[in-house]
Amino acid sequence: MLAIDQKQFEVIRQYVDLLAIVEEGFEHIQEKYELSHFEAGDRVLGDVFLAFSQFEMANQTLVEAFGKDVIIQEVQMFSSIIEIVEELEVNFHNEDSKKNIVLSKLIPAFSSWSILMQAKLQPYLQH
């Protein structure tokens, strides 16, 4: 395992915290969409999209800190989530399509990726 400095530790801690926050946001979105309260779910989804832009910026920082061999595969997997977001943007005004994409594609893809990222990053927070 690589030695990290305090700045890198903080980036990792904030990244892991953001993963958990987005997971909570998706739980809220799922609950609202299942009740057909799309407007309330969409507000939280907007916040999730803002978090995604933060992940994209932080991913570059992680690659620079750890080197491509350590974390590049996990970082590159985030692009598949962005592809789902792009599909969602095209279908955003169709509530049935939006609900289907979010619940059956976006949330599962993010959850899987989040588990991988947490497994990769948590050991650095244990010291």
Describe this structure in a few short sentences.
The chain has 127 residues and is mainly alpha-helical.
Helix-strand blueprint:
Layout: H1 6-34, H2 38-66, H3 68-90, H4 95-125
Helix pairs in contact: 1-2, 1-4, 2-3, 3-4
* Main sheet specs: none
Average pLDDT score: 92
Number of strands: 0
The helix/strand order is: HHHH
Structural class estimated from helices and strands: mainly alpha
Tally of distinct domains:
1
Helix content: over 70%
**End-to-end distance:** 11 Å
Pick out the low-confidence regions: none
Evaluate the radius of gyration: 16 Å
Describe the structure.
By secondary structure, this protein is mostly helical. It has one domain. It is built from four helices and no strands. It has helices spanning 6-34, 38-66, 68-90, 95-125. The mean pLDDT is 92.
Keywords:
127 residues; mainly alpha; 0% strand
